[in-house]
Amino acid sequence: MSRRNKVLKRGSSAEASNVIRPVKLTRSQLREIFYYLRLNRRVDEQLTNLYRQGKVVGGVYSSLGQEAISVGTAYALDPQDFVGPMIRNAGAMLVRGYRPRDFFLQYMARKDGPTGGRDANTHFGDLERGLIAPISMLGELVPVLAGVGLASKIRKQKRVALTYVGDGATSTTPFHEGLNFAAVLKLPLVVIAENNGWAYSTPVEKQLAVRDIAERAKAYGIAGKVVDGNDVLEVYEVTRHAAERARRGEGPTLIEAKTMRMKGHAEHDDARYVPREILEQWRRKDPLERFEKYLSANKLLTEKERIEIEKRVDREIREDVEFAEASPVPPPEDAARPIWA
Amino acid sequence: MPTAKADKRYGRESVAEAATLERMLYYLKLTRAAEYRIERVLYRQGKIVGGVYVGRGQEAIAVGSAIQLAEGDVVLPSHRDSAALLIRGFTLREIFCNWLGRANGPTCGRENTTHLGNLKLGVIPIISPLGDTCPVACGVALTFKQSRKKSVVLVHFGEGTTSRGDVHEAMNMAAVMKLPVIFICNNNAYAYSTPTSLQYAVKDLSVRGPAYGMPGVTVDGNDVLKVYATVKEAIVRGRSGQGPTFIECKTFRMTGHSAHDAAEYVPRELLRQEEKKDPIPRFEKYLVARRVLTAAQIQEMQKQIEKEIDAAVAFAESSPLPEGTEAVEGVYCGSDCWWKTTRTSGQASRNL
Fold this sequence. Notes:
The complex is a heterodimer of chains A (341) and B (352).
Chain A: E1 7-9, E2 22-24, H1 27-52, H2 67-75, E3 82-84, H3 90-95, H4 100-107, H5 141-154, E4 161-166, H6 173-184, E5 189-195, E6 198-199, E7 202-203, H7 216-220, E8 223-228, H8 232-247, E9 253-258, H9 276-283, H10 287-297, H11 303-326
Helix pairs in contact in A: 1-2, 1-4, 1-10, 1-11, 2-8, 4-11, 5-6
Chain B: H1 3-9, H2 18-42, H3 59-66, E1 74-76, H4 82-88, H5 92-99, H6 133-146, E2 153-158, H7 165-177, E3 181-187, E4 190-191, E5 194-195, H8 208-212, E6 216-220, H9 224-239, E7 245-250, H10 268-275, H11 279-289, H12 295-318, H13 338-341
Parallel strand pairs in B: 1-2, 2-3, 3-7, 6-7
Antiparallel strand pairs in B: 4-5
Helix pairs in contact in B: 2-3, 2-4, 2-11, 2-12, 3-4, 3-9, 5-12, 6-7
């Protein structure tokens, strides 16, 4: 890893004082993380606007409030590693090199988008960027990424495979089969269980009868860890540690990131089944605000720098929306073209 | 419900009444002798076609658990739990007629292994893709819960099956809904030729119980009394609405996967070691020492069993094979179907 190590003590900010640990990140890396968090949120907000303007057909799945998980985990990986994101992991895709315009083009089904207008969601990936496209059936990515880990092991590469499941997906078959397989073969796999409290309208209490999803790690004989999913540095550090274990051949890790889905399942869902006061509690733990406060309290980000980053993000979003809107919709004869070949 | 505690609480003496102990020995020996006849005699004589799956060496698991079921309870055995079928009321005649593919067997010659079920006896037949019975068990238990019955469900599966998603989904659902299911893993060390070291990365599978939010216990599956005591406690939990239990019974598959399989992949030394743990001689020794039975009584029991089996085999061998035209009967239609009402053969065999 070429990143220059500089140990920072955390905890001087009152908001994020519950975890004090050294995080080996440089100032510019911290600012980069802030940039990606901001970018993730703005992409989300922009997609909501486009959806409400009738320019996006189909579902828009927001990662509002969960950005720290996508960004913190993806940022902890090395370039040769592989990521299999879910629909709420736009942040991970941005860190791996996709640009906001890719999302706008995709959601508006434009010809220049990664799938050429065939999919109006985030089902796109790029092996060059170490990105496996999301699979809508959640949990299915676990065996796929276990396969990536197996290839890495057979080829004696130092490649780590990381993927995500929601609390709901932990009840599925592929989650179990994939994780057990990876455990037996000690594959370099990291599974992030984003516990956002709700699987569509199913609360987590109806999903599993244990307090922590991380408890499941014991069932497979692998490492398990609970992290505050709204604390980007904790997410980063624990993921980094799990990836290093995986690289050393010590097998998979299951990381449960506790968070909250701050919107409905998708944009059409007003989530009236979620008690409002719970949302209110979580709003106070917003990962962006917390990180920003931490950075400024520790003098890691000046007011000027923050405004600069925000302006840069806004500009990029504006340019990319314009680019996407100007892009043509695909001709109907394109529809069947790249199928089976 | 840790193992050590369970063992202490149920001292071996207090485990069951003498009559139950005797019944347990009877079914252990009956199952062993019947399966011997099936696997080592009839199959080798070419009278049984297809695969033969027996539970030699692991009979104590099905016996120690099914013997405690009450009317209304349901068991979903695996293909190595014929003892459960016998205990729940399938007759030897039915078992042999089925293996020999006879027209008057429970499946009328359409199936010739252990896919036997009867809702009146509280037996749901095995499903060959192992693990698929686990969600079925949850469904049965859910109806018990909804209709406020105090009944419980026992479901058996092997350690290989625990790697399947069906087991995962079922155990999670049972834990969340507090269903009266007792998940019994017959851990016989080999899933066909796959040893446990390639099946899972934990020492005891019972750690999976707490991972779902239910108790998990590992017991010596070759000790029928330990199985009995552990299942007993799980049944109490189930009946009183405290939810499911996961019990791992460690045992050893004393045959190949099927009768055709010489299991050369199993180290011979290991087999010799495991042979010494045979559940039947162990239990006999205990019964004699506790003066529940004398050696002579046990011998007499064995003779009686052989006689019963001889009679059942003779009956099955003299039973007719099904007519070719009967093959399509009972498929996609019930007894009111014109095809059935115009014919008399192919009736279910409950009165054998």
